[in-house]
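so i finally got all the pieces together for this one. its two components total, 701 residues if u count the protein bits. some of the lines might not be protein, just check the labels. i wanna see the whole assembly predicted at once instead of chain by chain like last time, that was a mess tbh
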Amino acid sequence: MIATTTTASARVYKLHARPAWRRLLLTREAAIIALLILVIAVALATVRNFDSPLTVTYLLRDVAPILLIALPMTLIIISEEIDLSVASIVGLSSVTTGILTNAGWPVALAALTAVVVGIVCGVVNGFLVTVVGLPSLAVTIGTLALFRGIAVGLLGTTAITEFPEIWTDLAKANIPGTPVPAIMIPFVILAIVFAVLLHFTPFGRSLYAIGLNKETAQFSGIDVGRTKFILFVLSGAVSGFAGVYFTLLYSNARGDNAMGLELQVIAAVLLGGVSIFGGRGALHGVIAGVLLIGTLGSALRLAGVTSDIINVITGVLLIASVVSASLLGWLQKRRTAAIGKRKGRAGASSDAG
Amino acid sequence: MFGMQRKRRIATTAAALAVGMTLLMTGCSGAGGGTPDESDGGDDANLSITMLPKNLGNAYFDTSTGGAEEATEEFGGTFEEVGPSEGTPTSQVQYIQTAAQQGTGGLIVSANDPEAICDALNEARDAGVKVVTFDSDTNPECRDLFINQATAEGIAKVQVDLISEQIGDAGQVAILSASANATNQNAWIELMEEEFAANHPDIELVETVYGDDDDQTSFDKTAALLQTYPELKGIISPTTVGIAAAARYLSTSEYKGKVALTGLGTPNQMREYVEDGTVAAFALWNPADLGYLAAFAAQALITGEITGEEGDSFEAGKLGSFEVDEDASVLLGEPFVFDAENIGDFDF
């Protein structure tokens, strides 16, 4: 009883007996979305200049790499793995774009190659995790250093800053007539693809099974290794694309680009309601989580709060969200145990009734 | 069953509310902190100045911020310092964007990267912000003015002047530089050689050694220099790492007070060696003056007194009048000489 209510809630009939609106609204994802709306409302009311269209442009432009990488990261964390090397892949992709453009390649071809480099990085991660069978935490800490090392080694301490203006302008362009950056178009497409993949395909549902219990998933006929391999390759590809965007946005290819981005991505994913122990989470929560951290930072910066304080607030928010989830789980367990005691062995039958 | 559901719902709501309230409070107090930029100077001009150093918590930039704040008070503007906690190339972009959103009058930047923040600066300028760079410039087309701390000629000359004064304008001197291919140092050394040849015929420059801006290497090279040239009367180290390492060697050796040492250093590194008599004087620019001048330059741009054209001139309070040189740059002046008299006034 305890195990079924806390870990496999989707399969408990009781929850589906509740009205649909309640099932949708009383979730962590809904809480994060509500919090996001609250932050936006408070910022609009109290922070000067927050209501300018520039805010939307800058905010979305800045969080775009995090938004992009959070998509595959969500899938990876749901299947109880982690990819810490994403920021290093961004750096390597950035350097690749820079070096090839500098060598006279057309930007489109250089960008495509950079994405392929990202895919290769993902293959390396996937190979080490699934074929060699090492834990992804150890593997990606290693490749975090490895890919970053290659990136810095290729370009040294120099930076490549000459890119055709047509491409850098494209990276900064807005969707005509709106303050929304054009990078949101590929993001929305990718978000839809990932949402469908995660929530509406057998592949995506199998990630939850893997995250909850690898062995059970394996015995249920899921090819756990192949599934995880695909996830790491997806992560590499999206990180490679984010690297190209990062390079063109700042007209700057450097080995140390996007240093530390992996932690921002993971923080946002966890804030969005994905369990670090796997098996739980949804994409709309993650997107709200990324936007929440981004909006909070933007509003606080506008209000003149220093970066250290912003980091403290973001950290407290993350811890509060994780603690509140555990607290809820604990309350629920205690409640269930109490009912179990009162009704003797009736715990299981109460589900049916 | 009902009890359980209700309890869970209440807990969810309570948790969400608690987090929301925390945010609300931090959001409000945050907004309170930003009030200074609401008063926009006296006249029509928007004299709000935002200072964006390479990173916060750096004594050098704290000093320049102090200078800029002093200047802003003098001309009656509002002042704010923002910045990332680490000096990565793109970390300044968000702060530039914030300044543009806030409609800051003038933005004073020390660039972590000459190119990476260029587009953001230009967007801010399109939004009406006047951009002044100091300490580290961006590409000239990305800013309105650059406040140059010193010219290569000025840096070379002050070091030659200091050493010749300290050794009585005659004898052997050596140079302890950074790495053999350090662009700045090599340019200065070349100018110093010219200056020695032209104006100090009795001084012989015996050797230039390279400490690679590494403390231990510089220390060892100093020891080697003194053994190779027993007649050596002075050492010039045009790098902060080198001069500190050389001073450390000299202060504990028999050469203390006999072999002169000068160059470019920071007061905090050199304080004990100036106080114990190992070093008589060394040079660098004064970051407080640099910030002060940058703030006045921003003010002159905001009021329209200057546009950044070559030949424009403006008043900068206690520092006097300055003229804009080519590439829209303004020179702070001769490097600043630190000695036992004034070193106590500085903390960077």
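The CA atoms of residues 123 and 233 of chain A lie 5 Å apart.
The longest helix of chain A spans residues 307-342.
anyway lmk what u think
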